[in-house]
Amino acid sequence: MIRIRPTEPIDFSGQVPGDKSISHRALILSALASGVTVIEGLLHSADTTATWQCLRALGADIQQDPSGSVQVRGMAGRLSQPDQPLQAANSGTTARLLLGVLAAAGVQARLDGDDSLRQRPMRRVVEPLRAMGAEIDELGSSYRLPLQVRPASLHAANLQIAVASAQVKSALLLAALGAAGHSEVRLPQPSRDHTERMLAPFGVRVSQQLDPDGGEVVALDGPRRLSTPGLLKVPGDPSSAAFLWAAAAVTGGRAEVSGVCLNARRIGFLHLLAEMGVQVQITVDQVDIEPVGRVVVTGRPTRAGLVSGPQVADMIDELPLAACVMAVAPGLSRVEGAAELSVKESDRIAAMERGLSVLGVDCTATSDGWRIKGGRRIGHGQLDSDGDHRVGMALSVAAMAGSDVSTLLGDRVWEISYPTFLEQMQLAGGQLERV
Ligand code: S3P
Asked: In the prediction, which pLDDT does 87 show?
């Protein structure tokens, strides 16, 4: 259990651990490529460990060297057949991206996950993979893990997916690497493009275009073999930094994070904070595969916020935090068009409504977001992370602005994505402790 006491304005300056999405991709592409890749700044968390272990079971040699960087000796496209089911644990990115890899890998493999992941939708990736010729058996409930992938010869395809999901888009691009011909994937809105960017230094160009109606089209010509770029650097995770930025906003403090990924598809939360009157200063220091830089967030929100349409994908993982900031902002705030939140690691729409209500916030869940009447003093109470890392961390941040001591059930939930959450919040002056 975590105990959270009301916190003075926080003050943080530093870096956060490596980006989770980029870390998964760095491991996967390095494992598929020929040659040795050194990855600096890789996130070591439960989710990325799941990807690491699955790739090892498929034959990749992945070692941590004493300097802290990770060395991957790639399989040059020749994967071994695993003798045990691959365990994606709690990680949707591991499961969905590996389904794309396995579809084209020519091996038979079972993929499974924990209770949360077993409930998450896989149809969105299974159906388009089958349209490319993949052989996938449903071993449990329909379109859910556990799934079994069998060897098959893939063909290129034109695929339309209904959700703006980078996991699905990435799975299809990974499968398209093993399919002869021109594959195209269309999404209703742009989503994070880390896979497209990272494939370039591995020697594969992915074309990226916007449709006149705002949709996104990515395409590549297969089959393609990957060759290592030698070195990959993983920037800090803006989705982890967002907990510090939100803590600054709810306590009226300051959080400066450097070395953080500033990919436009990942910083929608910073734009929302600025729209709500929080001071936000963004400086791009360098652009390598990804733009990387420094962000300073200062002070409380002065007005309500609205999140809808394409903004949703640009802050999908930060929406629980957006709800917490909305709780302290005067006026009626709304999040719309975010039904996806109900199929994340938990039903985040329901979990945040429950948690914020415990804290006395006037928060109503809708089918696709929340209506939040903010500006009242946050209360205190017994909170539950619902086994969901981002819900647990977001509610802790809200409770920092509370009127008295709160507790949070869900020990170490941050180990999924942000293992130094507690230490960094404490360093910033946050009154959080494990009890
Ligand atoms: C991710 C994409 C997003 C995000 C998830 C990580 C990725 O999911 O919520 O935490 O690494 O591609 P969707 O692709 O389901 O939108």
From this structure: 98
Phi-psi region for residue 150, left (φ > 0), alpha (ψ -120 to 50) or beta? beta
- Pairing state between β 147-150 and 109-112: antiparallel
Separation CA 416–CA 410 (nearest Å)? 12
Answer for the pair 221, 257: CB distance below 8 angstroms, yes or no: no
CATH number of 20-233: 3.65.10.10
Q: Bridge-partner residues for 292, per DSSP?
A: 261, 286
Instruction: Name the pLDDT band for 246 (thresholds 50, 70, 90).
Output: very high
Q: What is the pLDDT of residues 150-161, one digit of tens each?
A: 999 999 999 999
Instruction: Read off the pLDDT of each residue in 231-255 and give the average, rounded to a whole number.
Output: 98
C-alpha dihedral over 406, 410, 416, 420, to 10 degrees? 40
**pLDDT tens-digit profile of 343-379?**
999 999 999 999 999 999 999 999 999 999 999 999 9
Is residue 333 within 6 Å of ligand 1 at its C-beta? Answer: no
Alpha-carbon distance of 252 to 245, in angstroms, equals 10
> In this structure, are residues 130 and 200 in contact, taking their beta carbons and an 8 Å threshold?
no
Amino acid at residue number 105: A
Residue indicated by tokens 């941040």: 397
Q: Which atom of ligand 1 is nearest to the CA of 20?
A: 11
Instruction: Provide the residue ranges of all domains of the chain, joining segments of one domain with +.
Output: 2-18+235-434, 20-233
Cβ proximity of 312 and 344 under 8 Å: no
Is the C-beta atom of 51 inside 6 A of ligand 1?
no
Q: 210: CA distance to ligand 1 center in Å?
A: 20
Q: What is the atom index within ligand 1 of the atom nearest the CA of 166?
A: 14
Structurally, at CATH architecture level, domain 2-18+235-434 sits in Alpha-beta prism (3.65)
Given a cut of 90, whether residue 143 has pLDDT beyond it is yes
Residue 398 has pLDDT above 90, yes or no: yes
Active-site option among 47, 193, 317, 386: 317
Residue 317 in contact with ligand 1 by CB distance below 6 A: yes
**Burial, 5: exposed, middle or buried (Cβ in 10 Å; 0-12, 13-18, 19+)?**
middle
Among the listed residues 135, 181, 174, the one whose alpha carbon sits nearest the alpha carbon of residue 156: 181
Do 370 and 353 meet the contact criterion of CB atoms below 8 Å apart?
A: yes
Provide the token pair at 34: 């020929």
Query: Is the whole model's pTM more than 0.70, yes or no?
Result: yes
